[in-house]
Task: inverse folding
C-alpha cells in the first residue's frame, strides 16, 4: 500500500490506531530532496506492508504537527512505535541507507 | 571484467553536466556518476540544488531556480545519449590505465567501472566550524542551507556565521522568515561583493556582530536528540565571551573541495583543491595524471561560479577528446569533431 496523507487534524488518530510502526514523512512541495525520497518510501511501504506504514505530512499545510515534533529541516522522517516517537532521521538518503536506519523496526 | 569506457565523469554539477553534454556530442559515450540523493550539496546536481534564484547565470534575464537549471542541464546531457547513473563513487584507482572507479564496497577486488579518461567534477561542500556535537545538530537548529531550512524559523531570531557573498545571501533570504538575523563575522569588514553588502546594510532586520568568533554551540538535550538554542561567541578584540540566543544558526563560512577520493593520487594544493593545467600541455583541465582532467569548484578556489564551472566542464571535455585522439584510443578516425 503506497503512502497515505496525514494532517494536523488526523495525526493523533492515525498514529494511535496503528499496530505496526509508522514512518511520518515531513515534506513540502518546494523541497527537492523530499521528492527524491518519496518513491523510495513508497517502495519500502509496499515491500514492508504489515511491518511498517508510511504516512506523509505536508509541513506547509500542517505547521502545528511540524512544530510539535521540532521539525526544523526537511525531509525529516520520524518513526512512531506504539504511538510514541521512537527515531528521527533527517535528510535524504538512498534506499540502502534508509533500510539500514529502519532495520530495528522491520 | 567491465568494459572500458572512453570517459567517466564523476560529479554532476554544472561542470560535470557540461562535460557530459560535450563528450556525448563527440560520440564518446560518457558514463556520468552523478551521486546519490541527499540533503547536502553532495547530491545529483551539486551545490545549485540548495539555492533558489540564480540571477547571474547568463541567458536568464528573469533569473532561474537552481534545481531547474540543473534539471535542464541533465536533460540536455541525456538528449545526446549521456549514460547517467545515480550512484556514488567510493574509491578510484588512477595509478594505471585503464583507470578504476568503484561504486559500493571500496574493498572489492575489482573496480565497478574502468575508463581511458576520467573527468573529476566532484565540486565542493560547506565548511563547518568543527565544534563539538556539530554533526548531530544539523537539522536540529543548525543548517548550511537557508533556502532549505529557513521556512522553519518563522518569527525567530537567527544567526548566520560568515562574511562573504554566501553569508549575506543567506542572511538576506532569511529575513523573509526571521524576526531578526544576526551576522556573526570574525573580522570588522565583509569580503562580500559591494552590491551584497549594500543590501545587507540597508536591511532593517539584519544586525552585525563584528570581530566575533563562535566558540561553542549551546543546546538542550531532548528525547529525539540535541536541539540548538544559541551560540557562545567571543569578541576577538576584547576577548570577552557572550551568549547569542538563536532559534536557528546557519553556517556560511566558505567551502572545501571534495577531493578525499583523490588524496595521494592527484596533485592538490594545501587546501585540497586539485591542481590543473600545470603540466604545460596546453590542456587547462589536465591534472598531473595523464588522462585525468578536473573541472568546476573541485579545482577552482578563485571564481567558483556556476558559469565558470560550466565553462571549465566544456574545456575538460575538449581536453579529454583531444587526449583520446592523440593517444590513438578512438576507434573511428575523425577529421574534426562537430561539438
Result:
Amino acid at each position: 500500500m503506497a503512502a497515505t496523507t496525514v494532517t494536523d487534524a488526523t495525526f493523533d488518530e492515525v498514529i494511535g490506531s496503528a499496530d505496526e510502526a509508522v514512518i511520518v514523512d515531513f515534506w513540502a512541495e518546494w523541497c527537492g530532496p523530499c521528492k527524491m525520497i518519496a518513491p523510495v518510501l513508497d517502495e519500502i511501504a509496499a515491500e514492508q506492508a504489515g511491518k511498517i506504514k508510511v504516512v506523509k505530512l505536508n509541513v506547509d499545510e500542517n505547521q502545528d504537527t511540524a512544530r510539535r515534533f521540532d521539525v526544523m529541516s526537511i525531509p525529516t522522517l520520524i518513526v512512531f512505535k506504539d504511538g510514541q516517537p521512537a527515531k528521527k532521521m533527517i535528510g535524504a538518503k538512498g534506499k540502502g541507507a534508509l533500510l539500514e536506519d529502519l532495520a530495528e523496526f522491520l | 571484467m567491465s568494459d572500458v569506457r572512453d570517459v567517466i565523469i564523476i560529479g554532476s554539477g554544472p561542470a560535470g553536466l557540461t562535460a557530459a553534454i560535450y563528450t556525448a556530442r563527440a560520440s564518446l559515450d560518457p558514463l556520468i556518476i552523478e551521486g546519490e540523493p541527499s540533503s547536502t550539496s553532495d547530491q545529483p546536481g551539486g551545490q545549485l540544488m540548495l539555492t533558489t534564484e540564480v540571477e547571474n547565470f547568463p541567458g536568464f534575464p528573469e533569473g532561474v531556480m537552481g534545481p531547474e537549471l540543473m534539471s535542464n542541464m541533465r536533460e540536455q546531457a541525456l538528449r545526446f545519449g549521456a549514460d547517467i547513473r545515480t550512484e556514488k563513487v567510493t574509491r578510484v584507482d588512477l595509478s594505471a590505465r585503464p583507470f578504476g572507479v568503484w561504486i559500493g564496497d571500496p574493498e572489492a577486488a575489482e573496480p565497478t567501472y574502468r575508463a581511458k579518461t576520467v573527468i573529476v567534477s566532484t565540486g565542493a561542500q560547506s565548511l563547518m566550524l568543527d565544534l563539538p556535537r556539530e554533526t548531530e545538530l544539523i537539522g536540529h537548529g543548525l543548517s548550511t542551507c537557508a533556502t532549505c531550512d529557513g521556512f522553519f524559523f518563522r518569527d525567530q531570531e537567527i544567526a548566520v556565521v560568515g562574511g562573504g557573498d554566501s553569508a549575506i545571501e543567506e542572511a538576506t533570504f532569511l529575513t523573509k522568515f526571521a524576526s531578526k538575523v544576526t551576522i556573526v563575522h570574525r573580522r570588522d569588514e565583509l569580503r562580500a561583493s559591494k552590491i551584497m553588502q549594500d543590501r545587507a546594510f540597508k536591511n532593517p532586520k539584519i544586525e552585525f556582530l563584528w570581530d566575533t568568533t563562535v566558540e561553542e554551540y549551546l543546546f538542550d538535550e531532548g528525547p529525539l536528540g540535541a536541539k540548538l538554542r544559541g551560540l557562545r561567541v567571543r569578541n576577538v578584540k576584547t576577548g570577552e565571551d557572550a551568549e547569542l540566543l538563536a532559534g536557528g544558526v546557519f553556517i556560511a563560512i566558505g567551502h572545501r573541495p571534495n577531493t578525499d577520493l583523490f588524496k595521494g593520487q592527484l596533485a592538490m594544493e594545501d587546501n585540497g583543491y586539485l591542481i590543473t593545467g600545470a603540466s604545460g600541455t596546453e590542456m587547462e583541465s589536465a591534472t598531473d595524471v595523464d588522462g585525468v582532467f578536473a573541472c568546476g569548484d573541485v579545482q577552482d578556489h578563485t571564481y567558483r561560479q556556476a558559469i565558470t564551472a560550466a565553462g571549465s566542464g566544456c574545456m575538460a571535455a575538449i581536453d579529454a577528446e583531444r587526449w583520446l585522439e592523440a593517444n590513438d584510443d578512438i576507434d573511428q578516425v575523425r577529421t574534426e569533431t562537430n561539438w
Summary: The beta strands of chain A are 4-5, 21-27, 52-58, 76-81, 84-90.
